[in-house]
Specification:
Helices cover about 50% and strands about 10% of the residues. The chain has about 110 residues and is mostly helical. It is a lipid-anchor; GPI-anchor.
């Protein structure tokens, strides 16, 4: 009986690990590239905000206005656009100013 319990425990552990891994697998975010120029970030930010991204929180007085940097504001807008587009291929480019992150940037 001890052998069956051990095998059952191993199988349950494998199923749990597989389930957790599959849940994490699809989590991606679109963030500003650390090597992007100010102009590229500004252009991408303007595009995202005028094409469906929710940019209200990064406007003055918004909940995500601070830190008030182009890098942070662009990352917020890029990810909002990317998420609203269903993470569609090509929705995280912004002329090379963005990149996909697999760890939560928050």
């Amino acid at each position: 009986m001890g052998g069956k319990k051990a095998v059952s425990l191993v199988l349950v552990s494998i199923v749990v690990a597989w389930t957790v891994a599959r849940g994490v697998e699809g989590n991606t975010w679109c963030v500003a590239s650390s090597s992007a120029s100010y102009g590229a970030l500004k252009s991408g930010l303007d595009f995202a905000c005028s094409h469906g991204a929710d940019c209200g929180p990064i406007r003055p007085g918004g909940s995500c206005f601070n830190p008030n940097t182009i890098q942070n504001h662009a990352s917020y807008a890029f990810d909002s656009y990317y998420q609203r587009k269903g993470k569609a291929p090509g929705s995280c480019s912004f002329g090379g100013a963005a990149t996909i992150a697999v760890t939560d940037p928050k």
